[in-house]
Amino acid sequence: PLSVVVTGPAGKAAKSAEEDLALTLKIIMDHQDRSTTVSKEQFIQQMEAVAKVPEVPVVPVDVSVPYNAAAKLAYEASDKSISFEKFEPKYLAEAIALVKSKKPVDISVPYNAAAKLAYEASDKSLSFAEFEPKYLAAAVALVKSKRPVDISVPYNAAAKLAYEASDKSLSFAEFEPKYLAEAVALVKSKRPVDISVPYNAAAKLAYEASDKSLSFAEFEPKYLAETVEMVKSKQKK
């Protein structure tokens, strides 16, 4: 009831905010003391009883999947005529072969990659079919105007590249007929021979005909940039 509320000493108003706050806090604490249903001693006893309850041990559960789970499952489904140590490498080899046979990955670079890049950088006022021959003609003209370079691919380009990759223990004159004989034998044996021309063959030939004052890594982007700029300048005309 409000009759028990004391607003200050002898029922007078508090003289300051601090005194008012202290009296309010006392009223709250007195109310809490009256409404408490558990004594301090009872509360301590309850906490001690809870502390005496034995803890249930936590059993860790491993839910990780072994790295070779697939191989183990395949082994369990097999006739187990061999041990798992022998079975696993065979299973992995067959799995890799299956993936390769099902999903071939083409990592080759199109022969006309440079023309396609130049076309993408153009205003595309022409179709690519019309743009490509103009680009190639302009590229050839640019190379000829800057450096008299023969950008045709020699008939024995593959042999020359193979010789450059060899230990050069033989002269090229001795190496070439051996290389050609081995290539022919390889074709006859039905093993695939890579006789493709590298996508940057024109840049390589131009570099070989240059003074090589730059490395090929520095020369190639300059060569391509000049080719693209020439095509763009021809289109503007």
3D architecture notes:
This protein has 237 residues and is mainly alpha-helical. 60% of the residues lie in helices and 0% in strands. It is built from 10 helices and no strands. It has helices spanning 17-35, 40-52, 69-77, 84-102, 113-120, 128-146, 157-164, 172-188, 201-209, 216-236. The protein is elongated, with a radius of gyration of 44 Å. The chain starts with 16 loop residues before the first helix and ends with a helix.
C-alpha geometry:
elongated
Helix-strand pattern: HHHHHHHHHH
- Overall pLDDT level: 81
Determine the structural class based on helices, strands and strand pairing.
mainly alpha
Strand content: under 5%
Radius of gyration: 44 Å
Q: Work out the helix count.
A: 10
Low-confidence spans: pLDDT under 50, at least 5 residues?
none
Ends: how far apart? 102 Å
Residue share in helix: 55-70%
Layout of helices and strands:
Elements: H1 17-35, H2 40-52, H3 69-77, H4 84-102, H5 113-120, H6 128-146, H7 157-164, H8 172-188, H9 201-209, H10 216-236
Give descriptors for this structure.
mainly alpha, 237 residues, 10 helices
Question: Can you give me a brief rundown of this structure?
Answer:
This protein is mainly alpha-helical and 237 residues long. Helices cover 60% and strands 0% of the residues.
